[in-house]
Specification:
Chain lengths: ~325, ~500, ~450
Amino acid sequence: MPIPTPPSSVLLVNKEQTPAPSRVRVPLGPVPWASGSHEIVHVGQSALLLARPAGAAGGDLLPVTSRARGLVPGGLCIPNEQEFARLVRAVTHAGHAEFSHWQAAPPADVMVVDLRVRPQVVQPEAVAELVRLAAGDAPARTVSRLMDPRPLRQLAGPLTRAALRCETTQLGLLLQRLVGAGPGATPTGDDVIVGVLAALHAAEGSAAPRQRATAARERLSAAVLPLLPRTTRASRHDLTAAAHGVFGEHVHALLAALVDATRVPATFASATGWGATSGVDLACGLAVSASTALRHRQLIKRRPVSSTDTTDRRSA
Amino acid sequence: MNAPDNTALGARTMRRLYRDSVALMALASTVEKREGVLRVGAVMATPANLEILDRSGMKPADLVAAPDDLLLVVRAVDEATVQEALDAAEAGLTSTDSGAPRTERAPQTVLEGLAVGDRPTVAAVSTPGTYAPIVVEQALREGLHVFCFSDNVGLDDEVRLKQMAVERRLLLMGPDCGTAVIDRVPLGFANVLAPGPVAIVAASGTGAQEIACLLDRAGVGVSQLVGVGGRDLSAAVGGLMTNLALDLVAEDETTEVVVVVSKPPAEEVAQQLLARLAALGKPVVACLLGLEDTEAPVVVRGTLEGGAAAAAEMLGRSVEIDEASVAAARDAGTTGGLGSVVGLYTGGTLAAEAKIILTRAGVAAEILDLGDDQYTAGRPHPMIDPAARTEHLVRAGARPDVGVVLVDLVLGHGASHDPGTPLADAVREARATAAADGRELLVLGSVCGTAADPQGIDGQRRILRDAGVGLFPSNAAAARHAAALVNDQRTAQEIA
Amino acid sequence: MITGGVRVLNAGLPIIVEGVPSVDVVQLDWRPPAFGDPDLARLAVTLDDDATHAANRIALAAVHAARPRLLAVRPAREVVPGLADGRILLHAGPPIEAKRMCGPMRGALVGAALFEGWAQSPEEAEALLDAGVIAVDPCHHHSAVGPMAGVLAPSMPVFVVEDEGRRAYASLNEGLGRVLRFGAFDQEVLTRLGWMRDVLGPVLDGALQASGPVDVTSLVAQALTMGDEGHNRNVAATSLLARRLAPAIAPLPHALPVLEFLASNDHFALNVSMAAAKLALDNAIGIEGSTLVTAMARNGVEFGLRVAGTGEQWFTAPVGPADGLFFPGYGIEDANPDLGDSAITETLGIGGFAMAAAPAITRFVGGTPDDALEITRSMRRITLAPHPAYPLPPLNFSGAPSGIDVLKVLDTGVLPVINTGIAHRQAGVGQIGAGIVTAPPEVFGQAVRALHARRSAR
């Protein structure tokens, strides 16, 4: 049987056909590859950012990532480093990507990953450890104040408190300062917000009274979405997903470490390698927010106990 | 904190350029380290980032940018620095091979240099004199012959290092050695010489060059030109390196005739040297400046020209100081010339030779070696920087007592690319100054070079002739003519 | 006339070799040697002869021949020479009187005096130290090494490493935070020290006796292939050590807290490799004429250097604070001058010298993996030979640059690079940053002068 070879396939490089990767990981939902030409937005070490053809389902961007970066929302992860490199070479050579033929000859092994964050129990010691490590991180020495992510990371606590306490005005002001702010292609402020959203999603399991956390998360998501035009494409993609409770595998790794303090140092160490500051920005948002939510619960517990609080404590 | 007003701010927007944030941070740090750069930002142009820039006094006026644009901002001490930094940053962003291996650094020390590729056999040393003995010692220890251009090396160091070299049968040419040609490879100030049968062992750089160039004119090539440093035949050094060089050229199969050139050696050293030369086993000319010409036991000549002529003769050639060209030069420079002789030389031995010839002719003259420490004092040697001679020439032109100026022009590797033009300019100016004062200043000289030298000997000669320089085929011929002029003048005055 | 043809090494002006075919020229990027001191450069060149080279070959072979094994964990009093009787405390770096010590070191000594029960209050401890009632002496003088303040008291447990009957010792790493080696001496610190004495030491010793000695050289070598450089990153070595000992620890009483302690302390193996490095380098002490560096150590006031050919003599120069990366809220004004015996790792050829092995920490010290490669390459310029037991994967498995030669340091002007943690100048605040420091140039000059004087006297 002849193998279908569309004319402008990315699999045609030097007239030699490259098969689709043998293994891919994709998020739950429709497969991310669509027909039509995908323009290249950015080629990085561990990620290839492609723009989806206008009208295609699943958002603006298709991030294709390596094992080091892990699967991200709306993306496609190629765990075999050689296959990832081969695909990046093919795409950069062609100048754009075209996945139509994958419909006919899809990768042999397609692993579907649920990127939604579930409510989970966190260990206070692990949260404290991650807060400590994230606070101790310093950028490379000659970075000027302009490029310093730390002042923005410090807003994670106030942001969580404002969301938990329904302080809508304060929430708006903080988001104005955070969205699109700081160094990087996904600016620090955006990574911090993603971290906070992840913590609030997880916290529905243990940290704060469930309804409070849910309400806080919904308030924050609602407030972030109108501000998306203020940031970069890559951040818009991440923030949109986060507002819907979907996060990259690397965020899941950080959340998983929060159940066991001994896993925190290694996870944090690998986070320092995600982008220049992104990993630590995320870790900081996540840890500080989780810690704030934990304290918030303790404060509430001193007040007269409500029925929801009782249920919640049982699960803690 | 707003930056002070006397600094400059600049920005560059790169439309929809996504770069790895690791690359952005690295880029910002690199640019921030540039001299004169005060602050750098490399951020996406989101409203929040523009606000941060504004608050820090880093937002340029009339900036148009969207969140997906990459913005580079630089504040620096001046506009030029800002632009250079932005250019560098942009180049850094658009280069793709950030992971490429770095270029290997050049070796720094003697030992590191020896580890590179094929092992070197000769070390050329032109470091400041204080460090030269250290580098020379390192090189000798590693079994390298040494060409030491550096001067200001102490006499005790010279003796110690030469003893060390002799023990190892290694040449230590110098210190203060200007020229050498070893196995046809030129080092320092060296003329491009055809290979041939004459080896020159020289305690004098320009002396060796003059002899080699005169031989070249006679169609005689040079096998080796070994410099030994100006002090080698002093009592203290005792000809340590001259002796080793003589051993080597005596063994050298390409060498048929040997010329030793030096200022007159210390008496006891001279005796030893002549004895050594007499027993060398090859025909020898001892060109010892200022000594009487003798033929036995060794041929001795007191001028460079004489030395070259004797060596050429031994090979059945002659250094023709072509009468016609002497006459032409004489014609160019016979009118005027009333007054005394001043020599303005860049080559030390050429100056010495001129002085000897004038003295032998009974003419007192003021001969300056402008390459001598007292004139260079912190400036480059006049062979490297011919402009150094200009002021002396112009001053001579203004002196009513000076009638004749003797000059040299040395070509070859190491010399400046066009030494003739600055000399010609200076000659014109000096002659004009004298003419304005109602005198005629005669400038006489010679060009020490070969037809193969990179500067082009004919062109250089023409430049000098056009400026009115009376050009002779040798330095000695120019000096003889100067002496003759003064003596004619004296005779004329006596008759009058 | 010249055998092998004329090929020129050019030190100085390129114009000198203008007429030489460029393929036959090696142009040096020559710089004044000996940090611009011509007299010193002369002494160095005089020493740089066959006799010295021969002595250095012997010295380096002795260092590389060492195969230290971690044998036991015992109370210092029982094993460390000179600690059996009397009131004596050991400290990091070259000798220094108690009165001149920096804050963290005094704090650590006070803590150790309280821990030993020699004083009931910090004030009393300080008075006893100042009066000399409690003696102080460098670890290095007792075959021992200690990181940061490096304070070792008789009842503290020490690692015992051995090779062919020779031994070296190091304290046990307490972890990060408020710890004695940064000068903290509150109850939490003393309680932990007590636990280390009563539980950790005996359990580790029991495990070692049960499982047999650990080959430290191969432990370090393996860790270097796993992203450690052996000074600022020890997570691989610690994991390997813990994995090795865990089965032997598990059946012992208190196994869980001991294993938890090992799991929580990424630097636990540092002290083991320090002791092993000390043992290896001590092999070269006293080899006449050798210019090999046998120790680099800081006491928070001075940097100290020892060279094989001058035996146990220290060459010292004032040491400044490391200019590294500081944790938020701290800056160089808070930093204590550089501290600790841990530069023994660089002296052997790991730590900063093996940066190429540890790309993961380059960001921590403000650089890229390229910078790490460059650092290791530049350390090759001042060392005698690669360490055969420590191949570095990023450099095609050539060995870590090993054996610092003071003559090469003077000739190139390249100073040894040391990876270091930065302590707060006040006792007990702890680590406030990390970075790369270089040894001060003065000590290398002193060493060459002393070596030269020694040779002239012979």
